[in-house]
Amino acid sequence: MMSLKEFENRNVSEGAYYKVDIPDYPETGWEKAKQVFSRAIKGELFVGLYIVMREMIKFDIHTVQYPKEKLPIGPRYRAVHEMQRLWESGTERCIGCGLCEKICISDCIRMDTKIDEQSRKQVTEYTINLGRCIFCGYCAEVCPELAIVHGGRYENTSEQRAHYIGYEDMLTPFDMAVKGQVAEYPGFGAITPHEDERVKSTPLAY
Amino acid sequence: MSEITITIDGREIKTEEGELILNAARANDIFIPAICYLTRCSPTLACRICLVEADGKQVYACNSKSKDGMQITTSTETIEAERRAIMEVYDVNHPLECGVCDQSGECELQNYTLEVGIDAQSYAIKDTFKPVQNWGLINYDPALCIMCERCTTVCKDMIGDGALSTKPRNGDTIDETFKESMPKDAYAMWNKLNKSLIQPNAGDTLDCTDCGECTAVCPVGALVSSDFQYTSNAWELSQVPATCSHCSAGCQIQYDVKHATIDNPEPKIYRVKNEWNYVSLCGAGRYGYDFENRVEAKDEAAFANAIEAFEKADTITFDSQITNEEALILQKLKESRGYRLINDEARKFAEFMKAYSAISGTATYKTPLKAVNGANFVISVGSSIKTDNPNARFAMNNAMIMNKGAALYFHPVADPVVDDMGKNILSVNHAPMQEEAVMYLILDLFSKKEALPADVAEYLTSFHSMKTITVTETIKEKVVEIVKEMKVNEETGEEEEVEVEKSKMVPKKVDKDVEVDENRLLEIVNAPKTFETAMEKMLAKKDRFALMVGPDFYSHPNAANLARLVALVEKYTDFSVTMIPEKGNTLGVAMICDLDTEAGSSTIGYNVKGDFTLSATGNGDLDMPAMNQQEGTLTSIQLRVNPTNAALGYKGYELNDIANALGLNAKLTVDYTVKLGEIDGFKSENFDDLPNHYTNKGEEMRGYELTVNEVVTSGDESVAPFDEAAAMDEAMVYRGNPTLQFNDFTNKSHQLNETAALYVSSDYAIANELSEGDTVLVETTKGSMEFNVKIDSKIGGDIPFVPSFDSNLNSEALFNDYRFSNATIKKV
Amino acid sequence: MEVAYIIETLIKIVVILLVFSALAGFGTYFERKILAFMQRRLGPMHVGPFGLLQIAADGIKLFTKEDIVPTNAVGPIFKIAPVITAATAFMAAAAIPFLPQFTIFGYTVHPIVADVNIGILYILGVMAVGFYGPLLGSLASSNKFALISAARAASVFISYEVVTGLSLLAPLMMVGSFSLIDFNNYQAGGIGDWIIWSQPVAFVLFWIAAFAETGRTPFHLVANDHEIIDGFGTEYSGMRWGLFFIGEYANMFFISFVIVLLFLGGFGDGSVLGALGFLLKMSFFFFFFLWTRAAWPDIRPDQLMWLCWKVLMPLAVINVVVTGFVMMF
Fold it and tell me: What is the distance between the alpha carbons of residues C85 and A57, in angstroms, rounded to a whole number?
């Protein structure tokens, strides 16, 4: 088991490196001749031949037949974004604060907002140019409402750059959200487990 | 005022005797936190966060005056405790919606919360239900409001509308225990905060001149422009410093620009901001910003036609909504190609100034409008002040409130807005064509008779007569009694019994014979009966006098005589004189262009109809850039040349391209800025060297000041007597615009767009059985025109306004040059 | 007789062309599969069962790809170069007996196009001409990587011709004939008669030289992908590139045949068993080409030259002298 402590040591020079024992290059003709002979006698060439032959016979194949079989994706993998909804109502979590737009280092997020009938901020259009996105995860990290997270959908090839947008594709399907079939805070950008300890208490008069 | 030295946090600074500690500190880049204080307005003492220790005593920096040798500490342990408690109280129940709040980080509550370092909350009270309110152009979210009362203060002290006031919040009372446990000032501030909310005086919606200054000063996102709300975060907008061109005030503004939508990367102006500590905008400046002329490409055919038209034409007519540089280009074209330049409005202003300078000895008027802010007795003549130059009204109001001043307002049209500015202003609605009588009256009231030229003094004396009258005077007797009553102690929030001395005035009627000096001029100008007694009160302790002269004078048939009278007033009384140019750059045009009287046979119109029309509104033969797409300078009423920048791009041709095709040579229009130095009064400054900002001291670092040149006078100070019979007393109309409208550009803005109508007061509508929307035919000697009727609560009296902001109507055709015209108005 | 001979020869030529062209294709399949297995991969899997139709797919691709001649290339030479490689490879096949002679429908078939009495000389000569393909193609390509490839090709081929020739001298002295049939017959007595036992040094030298002649790893420097892209093939596309490819694989097969014929007894006595053994031995050497590619790294050009002139060539000369002395006494 790896503990957090190992990650907290940022001094990488400590014990993380070791020297490889490589002899110096031969310089004189005699040294070179000796190297040739020693290598020839040791039969290094045949060791190589043996190893590959052994592997062929063992036939221990590691290939993943990609389109047919896929490797599992880690929960904090940073692939195509997902816009979350609230479970209870199905309303979008996004409040249109624009922090993702601001923090995006490849400047690929843009949003249009307006005031809606209930005097609330409404996002009328939201785009991420996935052709430009570098999937750094800053947008998910900065989002105060956990509205934008990174999902596991990493297959996003397309013939047209124009396809690299589209809020609808990213938005959690309404029916799934209302049924509660979507995990509440999955993916990169979810809150840390000890968040409660950090919040200071505020008195309430009622 | 004498210079003194005070010490703030060990730093010796020089300031003036009586300067507020806060302003002295700010001028010297020393930070004292303050939320509710507004420069140029009276201290509110709502936030109490500007606590400092002066000579060992805790005082509020925003209302304590500095004294020589004062030792001031901005931060002590108790003060820090107070500040922390105050900021915690401000954060009680403040919604955590910073993410969507329109202030988007430019929030003083947020700044001070972080500055003071609030990381925990010790106080609590039950929240009240406070729904969001829409007040037309403004949205108010009471939940976000921190009751600093900057909005009410600016509305009363600066704008003069007094449209906002506080109302009870109806919340719980603060928990008793807090009184003991929390710092004193913080508790007092909370007590006050917890009792009130902002409300419009008119009830559910605002009844004011819609200047929106309250939204500019709001430190949080409580008061915001309803059009702008939630459309953009502040950090997305880039700022373009500019100068408002709608009227002659030349206010500093800043265009906030961003791409229009996701699909449209073209830049768009989202809002206008101002340096609200030093400039106050009117609604036209704040909301009338998107008047740009969108042109997709250079229209080469139209340009070729334009050159052809210029080759053929002998006259260029234009209006004063142009930059100084464009005016100079036109003047240069006149010099090189002999065009006649026609701009009647500017020409009349130039002629007026010329007549004035014959006595005053200066080429232009001498005093900028800001002198009015410093005066304590202000007179406005010849101007419908709230629409001709809103800043002049703000200055007049500011002078009355901040300097305990008084004002006289002479105008034929009664103005409820002016009357509402307080009891220290007296309106006199004289008959049109009696402006000279007003000027004589001012001379009579304020000049030293012995210094006046003999014939003028004699003429004035002819209006005076002695008369014995019996008056029934009401004498008031003062009776003092002591009563006990319950009163709420502001600091503790408790009710306690106080003994109050009450003095009552008991009226008593007495008949008396008095010999009075009867001034017939008062009767001629239609002054109210109480004028003389009122004046006596108003004039007490007044030493700084300012006179504002308005556009009615310049187009007056006897303008030259009026100008000489104005010069006499300036010379023989204590009044300084400021003239209000009618349009955005009338002063600049009048100074730069050598204007002609008679038009030739073939005319080019620039923003005016001509045989070939150049238009920045987009309906002419060749498109021109509008003011927010241009660089250049504008000459303001402050006798200043202010730079303005292009907020939006322009892809078509501009006047400079035409000038280059006609033989002038300049790469950019602003290459002419330095050449303005050829004109008397202007300086040779490069456009890029002109600053456009204010310093912490409040110094205006914008462009440069005009030099007021001396001219030789003949010594002839004769003025003509006025013609009492010329007074117009029949039905008439006045050429003037409603609030928020100045010209086609304001009307083109999406927030201000309206259909021009005949604006009448409600009294007039009732008297003539008109109702909103009726169509009437207005007939004058010059012609007739049909209008819809609009009842405008900001107009009084019985003279309807014929607007000139919509040039498609060509309403000016109804008038001779004078702004009043006899007219018959018939319902159709 | 004459007509029958001509017809027989034509048929043999066609069969060899077809079989080895196809084999070149299968060669690539085998190479990819074997390399994959040795590297714990699967290799081509998606076209056909076990990726068998990959060859067809590649063939279709090569035939239908656009034939590009770069603007600055010398057109005629650029176009003819791949043909030289492929043609010389197949021309060399004329003197190789692929199987022992057999009788079908009463007609005796000699599975050799022309049993010339200078077979070995002919094969070595024609194969040596084959190097003009890469050389001319490179020079005509107007490409700097191709140019480096040309320089390497010239130096490698010329150098290793020396080793090939010298290493064969000793066996030739023993057999006393240039005909491969004679070589086969010399060793027909069984395993003990194989020249490998009497000339092991010559065998190893020839084998090493064969790697250089065919340009295979560890002597792949003529078209070393990670250094000079595809060397002479950089500017080629479609079937022209395909001809280089076919030439290379055909060469691998033919040189495998030659090694077996020269040193490992060929098809022996001409029985069916001998024929099968012949093919098996040949297959081993082909497989060995692939095996080394999976196991060994490439060496530098200077090391290659060093090996040739300072190690292999002296060894070959010594071998010839020793053989001469042994035969003399």
Answer: 35
